[in-house]
Amino acid sequence: MNPVRGTARQRALARAVSGASWLACRMPEAPLVAMAEFAGSIWYRLDRERAAQGRRNLHRVTGWLAEHGSGPEPARGAATDPDALERLLGQAFRHQARYYLEVARTPGMTPETLARQLVVDTPDVVDEAFAGGGPVIFVGLHFGAIELPALYLASRAAQPPTAPMETIDDPPLQDYFIRSRGSVGLRIVGLREARRQLLDALRRGESVGLVADRDLTGGGIETKFFGAPAPLPAGPALLALETGARVYVVSVRRVGRRRYRGRLERVPLPEGDGLSRRERVTAFLAAEAAAFERAIAMAPEQWWGAFFPVWPDLEKGSVRGESRREDGEE
Question: If we measure between CA atoms, which residue out of 111, 45, 20, 17 comes closest to residue 6?
Answer without folding.
Answer: 17
